[in-house]
């Protein structure tokens, strides 16, 4: 229904505004590099 869709939209925008959605690949690469240098 329209009310539920509006609620989901607001929640999605809030989540996007308060969470880091785009740096995960760089963070993963940094972690892999760090672990590789430990060996």
- How much β-strand is present in the residues? under 5%
The secondary-structure element order is HH
Helices and strands: which structural class?
A: mainly alpha
Largest sheet: none
The number of helical segments is 2
Number of DSSP-assigned strands: 0
* Rg estimate, integer Å: 18 Å
- What does the overall shape look like? rod-shaped
> How many independent structural domains?
1
Spans where pLDDT lies below 50 across 5 or more residues: none
Overall pLDDT level? 95
* Percent in helix: over 70%
Alpha carbon gap, first and last residue? 55 Å
Structural notes for this entry:
- This is UDP-glucose--(Heptosyl) LPS alpha1,3-glucosyltransferase WaaG.
- GO terms for molecular function: transferase activity.
- Keywords: Transferase.
- By secondary structure, the protein is mainly α.
- It has one domain.
- The chain has two helices and no strands.
- The longest helix has 17 residues, at 2-18.
- The radius of gyration is 18 Å and the shape is rod-shaped.
- The model has no long low-confidence stretch (mean pLDDT 95).
Core attributes:
single chain; 39 residues; mainly alpha; UDP-glucose--(Heptosyl) LPS alpha1,3-glucosyltransferase WaaG
SSE layout:
Layout: H1 2-18, H2 24-38
Brief sketch in words of this structure:
Keywords: Transferase. The chain is built from 2 helices and no strands.
């Amino acid at each position: 229904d329209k009310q539920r869709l509006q609620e989901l939209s607001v929640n999605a925008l809030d989540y996007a505004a308060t969470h880091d959605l785009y740096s995960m690949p760089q963070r993963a690469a940094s972690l892999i590099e760090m672990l590789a240098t430990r060996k």
